[in-house]
Q: What sequence folds into this?
């Protein structure tokens, strides 16, 4: 990794454009046979940030010659009502991928809802089965943000073999699967979280830092080992990530910006997974 004063900027916008171009070509090929890859996104409640993310995903689908179906449910929706909605989408042959927008209202059992998504349509890798497949190294559709992190590392040829990676955060759809994917690429991985003692010391030993804590500018520049790669998976109000970008960039060898880093690649991976799901479902019919 670069140890000069100027870090390599891991440009997610540029990589996402390349991925989306390939996705569009595959989607157009499917459309020529009568199948339009379709992503169904379920939005429960009226959280403004979630609504914005859903619109972004719908626009991305449209630009990639795909279809998007947005299912809006009332904030008072029960777990059983949500499960019934997911079951209907599972049965619909014109829906190839299902995304339940996170977070859901507190009365809903989110894990039950995630696990109700049919494995072939779990394009965001949120089911327990999907996580297990990721841990064993053969996930068809790993969680999209961890997959985006890995795509950036691969695209910029950041070698993970024997490197020490520190993942800050243990979400079952971000921190934990990111750790599994890094392990699969022969990194030595430490997972840190809110109860970790001496977090600064752990981060300071890392060759690769993945920040996934959901707290703005949480990771400080003084924590970063000179030359380390810093991948910021956070997005907080004010368009800031989970790392103090300016301070971390002064020490890092490579770093993702926010916005324009992990986020665009996450959406591109979601589209890629949906097209792959459509191809697989067509092959099975």
A:
């Amino acid at each position: 990794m670069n140890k000069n004063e100027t870090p390599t900027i891991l440009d997610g916008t540029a990589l996402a454009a390349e991925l989306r171009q390939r996705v569009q070509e595959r989607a157009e090929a499917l459309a020529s046979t009568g199948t339009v890859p379709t992503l169904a996104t379920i939005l429960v409640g009226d959280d403004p940030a979630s609504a914005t993310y859903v619109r972004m995903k719908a626009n991305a689908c449209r630009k990639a010659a795909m279809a998007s179906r947005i299912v809006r449910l009332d904030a008072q929706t029960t777990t059983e009502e949500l499960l019934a909605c997911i079951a209907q989408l599972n049965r619909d042959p014109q829906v190839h991928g299902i995304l339940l927008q996170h977070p859901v209202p507190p009365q809903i059992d989110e894990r039950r809802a995630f696990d109700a998504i049919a494995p072939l349509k779990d394009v965001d890798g949120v089911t327990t089965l999907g996580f297990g497949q990721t841990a064993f190294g053969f996930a068809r559709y790993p969680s999209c943000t961890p997959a985006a992190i890995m795509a950036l590392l691969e695209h910029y040829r950041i070698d993970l073999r024997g490197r020490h990676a520190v993942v800050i955060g243990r979400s079952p759809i971000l921190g934990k699967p990111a750790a599994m994917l890094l392990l699969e690429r022969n990194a030595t991985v430490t997972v840190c979280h809110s109860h970790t003692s001496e977090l600064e010391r752990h981060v300071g030993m890392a060759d690769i830092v993945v920040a996934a804590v959901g707290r703005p500018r949480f990771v400080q520049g003084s924590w970063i080992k000179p030359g380390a790669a810093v991948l910021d998976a956070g997005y907080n109000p004010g368009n800031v990530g989970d790392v103090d970008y300016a301070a971390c960039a002064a020490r890092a060898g490579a770093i993702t910006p926010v916005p324009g880093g992990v986020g665009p690649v996450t959406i591109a991976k979601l589209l890629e997974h949906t097209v792959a799901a459509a191809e697989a479902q067509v092959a099975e019919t």
Notes: Residues 262-284 form the longest helix (23 residues).
